[in-house]
Amino acid sequence: MEIAYYPGCTLKSSSNLLEVQSIKVLAELDIQLKELEDWSCCGATSAGKTDDFMSIAMPARNLGIACNSPQSELVIPCSACYSRTLVSQKRLEKDPALKDEINAELDKKVDGDVKVSTILEVLMPKVESGELAEKVKKPLKGLDPACYYGCMLTRFPLDVPVPDNVENPQGMETVLKELGILKPLDWSYKTDCCGASAAMNDQQTAFTLMSRIMRDAVDRGANCFVTTCPMCQMNLDAYQDLFCKQSGICERLPVYFITELVGVAMGMSPQELQIDRHIVDAVSLLKELKLA
Question: Which of 86, 199, 252, 290 has the fewest C-beta atoms lying within 10 Å of its C-beta?
Fold first, then answer.
């Protein structure tokens, strides 16, 4: 099965390890990712906050490429890129004049129906068919993860079809149960904002938000985070020591991307999945639980 794939800027730079593991893990499930040819930045935070037209036009260029590819589904691992692309698609569907204006400047037109999916949406059919469970070699017993979705995966500025509960999503929990985690944590901050790019220009606000997420996860007994958003993963991982010291939090928790734990359960090594590249040590817990 071949699916079109849009990596976005982050998975080609600071979060490249997430691209490496996503391709490996999905290939084990007989899903081949076909990267869009000549894709470009979707605008994400910059265009989304400063120019409404460009926030629609930039992801529309990638949608046009996807519409002219042989695949009928486009997976986007980054929550920000996913959100901007899905919003652009729905805006163009509802505004034919805007669609014509943007298409007039595109070599490959937005003309056709491409399903825009998250990593979780791609994994879910493998859960339902039982194929994921069949691939599990090391059930993830002993992991008590706080599933952290972030604020962009289920919240949009207009009405779009959200494939999960907006306030209490369960996609990650469903996948993790197939991997041997019987009861992922029930906690209060799974869709709270981590500050996203504000970590660069308003660090105090971002650190306050991250410390609230961290404190609640620790108080609930989590021994790790699991994320679906590269920005959330990077923030909680890269800045954890700083915001924990600032807030008087003694504990430190590894921050896994969902495909990392799928790969570990399949028997892949932390090195193969590049888990050893995390800022907060994410390998020791796996070794302690005899998962690595």
Answer: 290
